[in-house]
Amino acid sequence: MATIDLSQTGGKRAAPRDWLRLSATFCFLSIAAGQLLFTAFILLFYYPPSLSGDFAAWNAKPLIKGFVPGDPGGNLFFAAHVLMAAVITFGGLVQLIPAIRGRWPAVHRWNGRLYLLSALVLALGGLWLTWARGTWLHWAGAVGISLDALLILLFGALAWRDARARRFAAHRRWTLRLFAVASAVWFMRVGYMAWGIAAGGAGIGTAMDGPFDIFLAFANSLLPLGVTELYLRTGARSKPAARSAVTALLATSALVILVGSAGAWLMMWRPYL
Prior knowledge:
Elements: E1 8-9, E2 13-14, H1 19-52, H2 72-95, H3 98-103, H4 105-131, H5 139-164, H6 168-182, H7 184-199, H8 211-233, H9 240-269
Antiparallel strand pairs: 1-2
Helix pairs in contact: 1-2, 1-9, 2-4, 4-5, 5-6, 5-8, 6-8, 7-8, 7-9
């Protein structure tokens, strides 16, 4: 998914362009650019106060529930949650690069184990922060986070099962699905910014209770998962119309991601660094 094969066959004629593959690569590179910006923000904003114990500095950025005086357990859990977020965001990108899998299989295996562990911790942590700490503003957000956490746990277990059984083709498919839902927190931010730029924030409520808020609470995981599923089911034997449609969908998604990522960096992350 993350490589482009422009090699020639027979030393004479160039191979036909695989637009689906190129579009998937473009989409992955767009995701990588946006997630690297997100990782940089986590490292620069959350890591210094979290590692130094200055948890109150989190509240310099608007949060539903960041640092809470008198809640040492919740504060430590939140710190662990944001620290692991950088690991899973960067690790997921590394895991999807075929060149790393081919040249350094040991790196791929150990990064994969760390990625699955991070996904497990973040999914369970997200459930705890939502329902035990009450980190939500609207029921749709709480239910959407819970659904995403359950999908992460399910896809992580299936990816691990197929890797253990050496069913690597199936393992890669489950890993892509896992990547889609494990990136929901990032997709949500990109979605908000892309929609804000395109529609001026229509449908966004002050307490995340507007029509778009409710839609995005579920779409931040289900929409990327749906696009991933269409890509996985559109192979070389698919009808040309189906391949063209998915190619266009991936290219459009990449452009939306680039716009949303740029907006998130300029308006949501950079001002707090």
